Fold each of these.
Amino acid sequence: MKGAQHVYIDIAAADTESAEQMKSSLTQIVEEIGRQFEEVVLSTTQAAETVSLSTGEHFARLSLAIWPQQQWVVDQELVPRIRSSLKNKSFEIPNDRVAVFYHPREQKPAIVHRTGKNSGPRVKPKGKRRSGSA
């Protein structure tokens, strides 16, 4: 998964209720794309959520992970499918706003588990350094 990109897609909604109603359709679309392009789409976890801004704007947000240099799947396949599907289900997308954000996928640090008092690597605590006298 090293080098994967995280993709957020925000689809504008008329209100919070509309954004909530969009979520199941959007989740279904993302899962279909994931199956169709399984060699490109790595993860569709937490596929849809609702985002409300202090400006009064509301969005349904999709989240997925893809391999680098594979943005074409999102731009050419996923976004047009989202617009078409929501239009067919009579959802309104104010000003046809669909925003896509690409971010490097964050690497989680390795966790060292210690089983005994003196097992595993030791980390020296930060603090005053001892100066050696010669």
Amino acid sequence: MKLTVNDKKTLSLLLEDGRTTDATISESLGITKQAVGRIRKKLEKAKIISKYTVQLDYERLGIHVFALVLATLTNEWQKMGELEATEALGSDPNLIKAFRVSRGEITHILVYAFKNQEELTDHFQKQKNDLLTIKQIHAGTHIGMSKDENKELFKKVLDESVGSEVSPEVMSAIDRFKDSLK
């Protein structure tokens, strides 16, 4: 999908505050509220934006330990299929991100969040996991997190994509990947 200048400016404003009103965006861009509404609908229909969410502060919610886990699907799950495995992975409330690795000994890179080190230890010791073989766990605290947002990356992509169009094949692959993480 090719984005217009106003599409990109609207996305930039929404990145700053997802609750920004159409009136505020129209005033900032010098276009009508109706035009902004059409841009929002176009971006939603293209699945570039899909929700307006709250940005949670992990520390204030009592989540202080994060774990980066390198794992491999067990043979049973590899035979059953990736969709079933992905759905099973998604049922773990401590899992906050999952990345499928295309080749090699590791099949998934997983990011977990916990209140403390004890909860992390309990989670992996008590969890009967016939889904994954865990290869490595790298734990750290929230203090070590330098970034928790992608605003700068998205703005960079928007700035670099002036006049460029993402191929339908690439968009389809991105959509399939995003759906697999839900």
Amino acid sequence: MTKKNTRRRVLRQAVGVLGLAVAVAGTASGPRAAVDLPMAEPESVGMSSARLQRVDDYFQRFIDDNQIVGAVTLIARKGQVVHHTALGWKYKEENVSMNTDTIFGLASMTKPIVSTALMMLFEEGRFRLDDPISDWIPEYAGHMVRVSDGPRQRQVPEDRPVTIRHVLTHTSGLTLNAAGAGLSEADRRWVTNDGEPFATLGERVARAAKIPGAFHPGDHWQYGASTDYVAVLVEKISGMTIDSFLKERIFEPLGMPDTFYNIPRDKVDRVAAVYRPNDDFQAELSRAPEFQEPTTYFRGTAGLSSTAADYFRFAQMIANGGEFDGVRLLGRMTVDLMISNNIGTGKDVYIRGPGYGFGLGFGVLLDPTQSFDTLSPGSYGWGGAFGTLYWADPVEDLIGLMFVQLSGHGPLNIRQRFTNVVTQAVVDSVADQRPTVQGYATPR
């Protein structure tokens, strides 16, 4: 046996297989995350145990080649977790092994959660999706956009106001970045707080109203600051900080004790280090785990940290049509709207690649034949900048989660190939599946 294969076998035995064995057994030992999940044997839900081993083999190759240092993966079908493993290290320089309860920075995987918070207020009749955001953030009344006039740019009034639907779908054209916006020196200093940190996101968003939009609202899809506006709207409408709202209305009801903006000091030892690729695509340390003083600046675009087990509970709630483990956060029809394409055609959702549209907080797969992902039409989810990824396939009743911490992971295509190594483990007959209408799962 080669040295590389020996290392792979030892790591898997020490971390990955042990983690899965503890989770399946449901004993009191091992991480909390492993024992609180609804576990099942893969074959009981139409998946192959042998083929699921390919998921570990896939990530172990990246670890052996030092392109990532560790990973946690979780796969569920029909509401049952059939795979939950940890491989490699969460902090390689200190020889600290990855565990299934490791805490990861979610980055943009914060967005679906924050969008869900706003849709909970939608269900309370607080607003209509096409209401202008200026009803709650009055600085955006009469907002301007940039248009090109040959080689020059000028500002003109918006053709239509920015609405709540626009910020939920990333079609608002809004930005918090003053660079290149053509602002006067006085306005630039106002918008940037003269280089000093803002105490709250709400204060920064209000000042950013002086920055013209990149286009008329609804004309294009542009990834950026839109979900920060979603977070501020939650705060304005509910009268709570987004931090408190998420904790009281989502995390505590769903049983997500390891999801937060401010990581408690006593949980820092569970946090994964963040890595970056060097010029040879080898993973090198970017940020070591350390306690950060609590902040009051809670973003909607990023900022949350979580475990795979916690995020599964959120993901399964959405997959169940708004309910998980006896707790209902949303109605099924609201969820159906959130995971349906809300941006029409002709708008490039370039972050997810071809074949995708966008719902209310989620990328939505419209055409698998154009996509890098091996999923069914109507699949949805989102990922984060450090290599986290979440998707759900409603036709196959399948959820996949991968958590790594590597900025600049794009050239590895590690997330795009993850769907392949998960879906190949589905082995039941087509006849066993729920009937579909135009490629979407019918209501349960």
Amino acid sequence: MSNAICKICGGSSPAETFKLHYNYRCVVCPKCFSGRTEQLKKQQQTQEKKIERPPGWDAEDDYLEQVARMRKDENQAQFSKIAGTSQVKCRCSKCKYSFKYDPFRKMPRTCPFCNTDVPRLKTFNLL
């Protein structure tokens, strides 16, 4: 029996026990194949997050922070000025479709692809 080194975790195992993993797209050791390596990485990341938090921080605060971050990302359509015109290029926050938007006429009012309302745009930033 010969031992082989796993490319994911760096551990060695008998070569006969290695299996092809669909996500990594290479042969991995039994520990990585079962997902233990990913679980350990996630546990380490959560421990690092817990260390960075101020005293009194709990799971409810984590949840509220996550929801606030999601709402902020959700409500922000991305606008960029199109040179030489009064229009802007808008990228929908829901479907990520890009289209031209006229901030003075406020047209189109919704995303042409998914029919999501276009958020208000402060036009003085674009002039």
